[in-house]
Amino acid sequence: MPTTATITVNSLENNDAIRVVHITGELDESNLPEFERTVGPVALDPKTQILIFNFMGLKFMNSKVIGYFAYLYTTLSRTQRKIIFACYNQNIRDIITLVGLDKVVESFPTLEGAIESAYRIVQA
Amino acid sequence: MEKQTIKIELTANLDYSALVRHVADEVFQNAQFSKAWCGRLKLVVDELFMNAVRYGSTKDKSLVHLTFEYDGLGIRFVIEDDGSGPQAKSAEELKALIQRNESNHDLTRTSGRGLSMITRAWTDSMVISSSAYGGIAMAFEKKLENASQPPPSLPTELQPQPLDTLKVTLAALRPSPAIPLSAPRILEPIPAGAPVFEVKLAGEIDQSNLLEKIAPISNQVATLPNGSILILDFKDLTYINSTFIGSLAAWYKALQGKQGRIRLRHVNDSVREILTLVGLINVLEVE
Asked: Is B160 close to A71, i.e. CB distance below 8 A?
């Protein structure tokens, strides 16, 4: 019964400046390396200005995954880029709030809201 | 409800994390916890299982022992390892590590939250002791009466410090003329005859030794004559936390009020990174 997650990345209207990572399933230390392999190159691509994480289908994540999001936040912030969270459920909100990540990463209840915000930032 | 006990032995492998979470969720539901609290306690069990497998066991060889006990009042969970892992710690060493992590308020750190923050916040009590299996036994309890909405907040000393607060504080300071982040900053020379005071800092500055480290400097800043130059030598400094950064900003402001300056010397990459992240690199003189 290994931990499974499906991760897909897409760009908005062929605009690589805004990319959306859709995650469904569960994330923990056992499949974090796979998550890092998928997301890492996208985050490190200088064309990516805003990286939106759509948590609509994410049921679980633990402190190791939180640590990776903290790393992504720090890495992108160094070059004035950012990550945005969208659509997390109560369990995910609990842990993000508990560790204080909600104080540094902007979150939206809907993916549409996150995308609108990302466009405003990129066009500013 | 009569007391129920469920004991499980699992081979030490993180591939079983999902199975452990599934069992934990079932147990917490049977113990009458709300859906939200089932999710929180499931995460606590996951953190403890990850710790036991990763640090206290030999992958695919050791057994990890889990015990759930519940009645109509609440739940007790214990996890034990055999202490054979290459990074195994004694109960006392683990307690000390958790204590150190509790005093780390850096929101962007990449590890150290599982036991110090999550487990502490969402359980009524956590006990770490030696296990009869050779390693560590970690136990927590949660009473149903304490599992109401919303979850208890962290003790004040553990609450993360919002970076926004620090940014507001920094924004209130008067920075030097705008300097591009990437441009090397040309420092003004120290005027001849200006009173110069140099302080050397070493090691790590965190919540455990913060007062001891900053009090002498704060006292000195308060008594410096007008036009003083305070040089902080970071040559042997390896770590600073966010509270120390707040002190740096306060000293900068105090010296500005005395037409003085503050200069940092021998700043290593990790400290420079933190100063850059909060914007202080553009405010302070950094050699």
From this structure: no
